[in-house]
Design a protein that fits this description.
Number of helices: 3
Number of domains: 2
Structural class: alpha+beta
Number of strands: 8
Largest sheet: 2 strands, antiparallel
Strand content: 15-25%
Radius of gyration: 20 Å
Strand order of the largest sheet: 1-2
Order of helices and strands: EEHEEHEEHEE
Amino acid sequence: MGTHRTERPFPCPHCARAFKTGGRLGQHVRDSHTPGYVIPTHKCPQCRKEFRFRNKLDAHIRAIHTGERPFTCDQCGKGFVINSALRLHLRGAHGVALESKDRLRRSKKRVVQRGDEEVTT
């Protein structure tokens, strides 16, 4: 089952929302319907804005407070706050198609074939 499908077979028992995966349904129930549950956040030390994920806070600090742009285009020198913006720039502005990583689906990561033998990771 892919994540780009349109059906949402996991309905929330508490509201009208439905989800593509059981994990996302569980996260929704915990975050939205569990009394007293507070979503963990990361606060910006400069402006106290809150982010659910640390990488989003890091990008915010670079973009808003420090102006740091550590991801630099090797074609034109333009800098970016996040690596994904650099990848989009390379593809759109310069026509550079980056190699996709050889990744195993999560369910296949446990057992990897190496030649004749199976290696459990």
